[in-house]
Batch of 2 targets.
Target 1
Amino acid sequence: MPLYRFICKNCGKEESLLLKYNQQPPRCSECDGELEKQISRVATCRKSESCSGCSGRNCGSCG
Ligand SMILES: [Zn+2]
């Protein structure tokens, strides 16, 4: 099974979960909120880099 990274839309908690292809995303373990699957590796940007690939949620410099 592939390992996916999720971010809770409600509280922002990151979760890395194994998920079957047809399985619905699980709920957040903290708040039972909806988890959003991250398609690619989570973009983390350094201050010297462009933030063009960053969602903003995980970034302390462009959020
Ligand atoms: Zn949550």
Note: The domain at 1-63 is CATH 2.20.28 (Rubrerythrin, domain 2).
Target 2
Amino acid sequence: AGGQYRLFHRADLIDLLHWAARRAGVRVLLLQKVREVVPGPEPLVRLASGAELCADLVVGADGLHSVLRQALNGDEEPFFTGQVAWRAVIDNPTERRDDVTLHMAPHRHLVTYPLRQGRQLNIVAVQERAAWVGEDWRQQDDPEALRAAFADFAPDVRALLDRIETVHLWGLFRHRIAPVWHREGVALLGDALHPTLPFLAQGANMALEDGWVLAEALGRAEAIEPGLAEYRARREARVARVVRAASGNARKYHLAFPPLRWAARTGLRMAGRVAPGMMLRSFDWLYGVDVTEGSAARSRK
Ligand SMILES: Cc1cc2nc3c(=O)[nH]c(=O)nc-3n(C[C@H](O)[C@H](O)[C@H](O)COP(=O)(O)OP(=O)(O)OC[C@H]3O[C@@H](n4cnc5c(N)ncnc54)[C@H](O)[C@@H]3O)c2cc1C
């Protein structure tokens, strides 16, 4: 937005979405596990409790291990990228309020950014390794393992790592974009549809964009099926490009061969010095798109 990142704590974003959904009259059922989704003219959701729910349309926004993705696309084996990500939040000991920093070294990189008006600092540290780690939000690790992996980083980075008490470890897997996006009365969005590596920080953003475009396409269409077809047509090229670019960044951040590292870093510095703004312009395709823009223009008419 205006060349600025908006940095959200995940819990705050979910609270905001929850508040907006309730205000729009949505009924929210918490602690319900979906066991099965059956597409059809009256799609059916079966809950683990045994209850069954019917709706005109069921949207599977159920993340990486989506029940609906599996129903539409069958079982798939993701591919372990050989990278793991530690994630931790600490009280922010610095004066930084709104900037993102990226530290790179062969086979590792570390990103930090402030959250909650700068009161906290989010740390994401990525390392290449052969050992397989599960793809699960809840898996914790010993903070000492993270400190050891980044022991040769700058003292200010190490000082941040020293403050970590609780850290989660997440294996990074590559999944393909689901070939089947929708079927009678059901549709996928977000990570359930196009899981991405986190190296462009776009996963949650794409899920929000999907939701907007899906709602808009359905609102304009005369029936659900053409609405779903328009949703796919408007989103397909963009999500494919984002997922590809995020995978490309995985390689760039970790270049190990010194001349390549030098070239990559010099390239970034040169781009900034010779033509300020060029770096950002090369991301115009990403940050220059606002899926809400057309709707604002339409609603002004
Ligand atoms: C290390 C890391 C860093 C990241 N950094 C960023 C970033 O900076 N910016 C960004 O935009 N994205 C980032 N992402 C990606 C982002 O977290 C995801 O892309 C985003 O959360 C996807 O949203 P979603 O709603 O599709 O899925 P999720 O956020 O995974 O939500 C799915 C929901 O469905 C629920 N669910 C699943 N199965 C069932 C079931 N059977 N029954 C009922 N409920 C179910 C889950 O409990 C969950 O609440 C990062 C990811 C990782 C791993």
Note: The first strand starts at residue 34 and ends at 38.
